[in-house]
From TrEMBL:
This is SsuA/THI5-like domain-containing protein. Its main location: periplasm. It is found in: Periplasm. Belongs to the bacterial solute-binding protein SsuA/TauA family. The keyword Signal applies. The keyword RNA-binding does not apply. Keywords: Signal.
Length: 297
């Protein structure tokens, strides 16, 4: 085994279908790395960060940028080693049909209402930017902290909230139940909002086991290339790994882009844009009073 490791503990999300799950299921990671790779499902990127802090997780696959930045801002020594997936349309807020919320009337239709949302992740950041754009004052709405996708769907279907924000399969479920998007992912991207997940690791692990991290990224790169060449034949395997049906998997994958390493290393991503997006989010959270202070870079 490389560098004295017997096992590699990798955090991931269920109901979040990614191209590398073929390599996860077929244990390509295990055979290439010469390690037992344990894939451990987490409810949120914040939980992934905590598990990296405690040493329970070596690599987080598809951790959100915002939880990563929040933890690093508060002193965690974690590093970004890659971009997992870009997904403007797979993360959004869905309005309940009874409230008839649109871009034109949001300032009035959401006044006095409750919105169900994760706190301290990109979904929350997008929501705050969207409310700001639509002229909705935060004083006029109450934000209810989310306990995850299924809880968001339940709050939405009960009609308890005017809008529920989530990522992944929960979005499709709420739209299928008659909900509507107040703004599309591409409309939000036009506001300059970048939505992507990263591959991260504790700095100590990345420095001590750079060979393992590099090999992990190469298996991921190869899986992404295989998916790009022939997505259709791989969807069933990915759906099973994600714990989803084929239709739900397919519609999420339509919203996902898996970047090759050249793209990841370019100016558009790890060559500057990722850093700028992180800085903008943290400065925004400071301005909103969510965190006290942001790092300089």
């Amino acid at each position: 085994a490389p560098s004295g490791l017997d096992e590699l503990n990798v955090a991931y999300f269920l109901e979040w279908p990614t191209a590398n799950q073929v390599a996860q299921v077929e244990q390509t990671y295990d055979s290439v790395l010469g390690l037992t790779v344990n894939w451990i499902a987490f409810p949120s990127g914040n939980d992934m960060a905590l598990a990296m802090e405690s040493g329970d997780i070596d690599i987080s696959y598809s951790q959100g940028l915002t939880p990563f930045a929040n933890y690093v801002t508060s002193g965690a020594d974690h590093v970004i080693v890659g971009v997992a997936v870009s997904y403007a349309d797979a993360d959004n807020c869905v309005a309940h049909p009874d409230y008839a919320v649109s871009q034109d009337n949001a300032a009035s239709s959401l006044a006095g209402q409750a919105i169900y949302t994760p706190i301290g992740n990109v979904t929350h950041f997008k929501l705050l930017k969207m409310l700001e754009h639509l002229g909705v004052s935060l004083d006029d709405v109450s934000l209810i902290p989310s306990e995850g996708g299924p809880a968001a769907v339940a709050a939405f279907e009960n009609g308890d909230v005017a809008m529920a924000c989530a990522f992944g399969g929960a979005i499709n479920t709420m739209l299928a139940s008659g909900g509507n998007l107040v703004m599309t992912g591409s409309e939000q991207e036009a506001l300059g909002i970048r939505v992507f997940d990263i591959i991260s690791a504790p700095r100590s692990f990345a420095e001590e086991h750079g060979d393992v991290v590099t090999a992990f990224l190469q298996v991921t790169e190869d899986a992404n290339a295989a998916y790009a060449a022939d997505r259709a034949s791989l969807e069933t395997t990915i759906a099973d790994a994600a714990g989803m049906d084929l239709a739900g998997t397919s519609s999420l994958l339509d919203a996902f882009t898996f970047l090759d390493s050249d793209s990841q290393l370019s100016e558009a991503w790890l060559g500057g844009t990722v850093q700028a997006a992180m800085k903008e989010q943290m400065d925004f959270f400071v301005a909103q009073g969510e965190i006290d202070t942001a790092l300089d870079s």
